[in-house]
Amino acid sequence: MAEARNPPEWLEAQQPLAQWYASGLGQSILGDLQQRLSHCLSDIFGYQGLQIGNLAPERDMLDRAGLHRRIILDAPGRPADIHGDVLNLPIASDTMKLVLFFHTLDFCAKPHQALREADRVLTDDGQLIVVGFNPYSAFGLRHLATGWRRREPWCGHFYSQSRVSEWLSVLDYGVLHSESLFMRPPVDSHRILWKLRRLEKLQRRIGSMGGLYILQARKQTLPMTMQRQVWLPKRATLGVNQMAHSGKRVVSIDAARQSNKPKS
């Protein structure tokens, strides 16, 4: 009997990630994250958008987007509108104005395939918003120190903003906005996090070192229009056989000169 294949990392990570976001640290992050997302979503209008990963069921992360329909996809057994795998989205192509990756790349065995799936379901001018953990932060240090314990979220991949931007450029996406957030250390204590809230003021100076990042990019699919090109016949010599064009009438230059000579 063939050995059963392990499910993709993304499917396994959804429930532990949701439990982590229900902690004091996760709730502190969600408040800041939802506020930052509202600025990215305020200019997005369309029929429907897709959120991949329902890590905070009590919050509507796409609330500020001008979408008629907001769809949430998550792993089987999780609260969501539809269930499936991010590597094979059960969504028709060219149907989504927006796709939100909620730590999708951080826990995906094949991030390039996940991006291609998002590209497939997005419309020609659709937008992709990626939320991920920043490896160049205190969160990244915790990831390096405790990732071997295989506990979410510290066992994730933690791809940098620049790396994700490079992947998106290959798919012809233009980055519209990129920022990091949450300058406080990853400690699960309301009391300590409250005391360290002033660290958020460092965002203006060393904003790239926040624990999480938001990257917003737009699909740049430009339709190509074929133009009909008229080719003129080649002539052995120029001048003698050159043609003069006047509207729809084509007259030989030599013939025109002969007709203009005075009759003897």
How would you sum up this structure, described in words?
This protein has helices spanning 9-21, 24-41, 111-121, 138-146, 161-170, 190-195, 203-206, 253-260, and strands at residues 45-52, 66-74, 82-83, 96-102, 122-133, 173-181, 212-219, 243-246, 249-252. 33% of the residues are buried. The protein has a single domain, classed as Vaccinia Virus protein VP39 (Rossmann fold). With 264 residues, the protein is an alpha/beta fold. Residues 1-5 and 234-257 have low confidence and may be disordered. It has a seven-stranded mixed beta sheet with strand order 3-2-1-4-5-7-6, with helices on both faces. Strands 8-9 form a two-stranded antiparallel sheet.
Topology order in helix (H) and strand (E) letters:
HHEEEEHEHHEHHEEEH
DSSP helix fraction: 25-40%
State the distance separating the first and last CA atoms.
107 Å
The biggest sheet amounts to: 7 strands, mixed
The helix tally amounts to 8
Shape: globular
- Beta strand count: 9
- Beta-strand portion reads 15-25%
Derived from helix and strand composition plus strand pairing, the structural class reads alpha/beta
Q: Name the CATH homologous superfamily.
A: Vaccinia Virus protein VP39
Can you give the mean pLDDT? 84
Contiguous runs where pLDDT drops below 50 for at least 5 residues:
1-5, 234-257
What is the rounded Rg? 29 Å
CATH class: Alpha Beta
Spatial strand arrangement across the major sheet: 3-2-1-4-5-7-6
Q: What number of structural domains do the residues give?
A: 1
